[in-house]
Amino acid sequence: MNKFFVPNVVIATVTVFGLLGWAVHQNGGSAGALVSPTVHLSTKNKAFYFIQCVSSVGATFTGAAERVSDWSRFSKTRNAAFPAMIITLPICLTISAVIGVYMTSAFYEAYGLVDDTVVWSPLVMLQYVQTLDYTPDCRAGTFFAGVGILSTQIFVNLTNNTVPFGMDFAAYFPRYIDMKRGCMIGCILGFACNPWRFLSQAIIFVEIMSGFSSKCIEQLLSFLLYFSQAYSFLALVFSCAGAAILVADFWIIRKRMWKIPDLYKAGNGFIYWYTKGWNLRALAAWLIAITPSMRE
């Protein structure tokens, strides 16, 4: 997939800066007043909003952080992945956040509220401007912007959700499922869960979750949804459950003891090898991790 990395980065960069330039141009070259609003906050409120923003960003990247090892294990040296993450992640996240703020501010001043709300989603912006100016230029612009956003979403889900899922799923049934088959299963389960209904009709998601009274059924539902990581939304909602399983497995079940050489050796004499197509130790670790919650 390396040959798709650079083109996708270029497409994403052109798309976000193009949308920013369009929004600022529509506002007469100004980013708007939301960048420096005349709102006075107390020290207590500033601290609350700061913690809220940090928590929001942290929650968004919890799922991604779990899957860093899926890619960093391909590094030629032990610490090769750290400089890239330490340098590029803060820069990219900061630039993306600034672009989002400026774009939202400029769009608000140029078009005002949409359905009594401030629009921050680029997709909603593109849909709204077509209702006002449905010209060939507008349609072409929204088409190319949409293609850029779509390609980015596909690639992010491929590298951050689908492939890591395929790696993890292949570890449970290595005799029958390889990484590619695991990826296909993840995509199928992702579609089967209808994640677009969660996004478009949040009340359905709330009603579904409120209908389960048994802890065992809740755990089963979380387990099934965790294996549908083809969509970032599901990975975000249930990333806390995944983190809990990883913590319990490493600190409590294995007591920080990993037999690393056995991870790369085949045969019944090695503790991570499968038995008749089943990795029984990995399956047992997962069952032990969720057993206390099931008993409740």
Secondary structure blueprint with pairings:
Elements lengths: L1 H25 L16 H18 L1 H5 L1 H5 L8 H31 L10 H11 L3 H37 L6 H14 L2 H6 L1 H9 L4 H12 L5 H6 L1 H15 L26 H16 L1
Helix pairs in contact: 1-5, 1-7, 6-7, 7-8, 11-14, 13-14
Describe what this molecule looks like in 3D:
The protein has helices at 2-26, 43-60, 62-66, 68-72, 81-111, 122-132, 136-172, 179-192, 195-200, 202-210, 215-226, 232-237, 239-253, 280-295. It folds into two domains: 1-132, no CATH class; 164-296, no CATH class. It contains 14 helices and no strands. The protein is mainly α. The protein is elongated and about 70 Å long. The two termini are 44 Å apart.
Name a few traits of the molecule.
mainly alpha; 2 domains; 296 residues
Helix amount: over 70%
Q: What summary fits the major beta sheet? A: none
Uncertain runs are 211-237
Tally of strands: 0
Would you kindly provide a brief summary of this structure?
With 296 residues, this protein is mainly alpha-helical. The protein has helices at 2-26, 43-60, 62-66, 68-72, 81-111, 122-132, 136-172, 179-192, 195-200, 202-210, 215-226, 232-237, 239-253, 280-295.
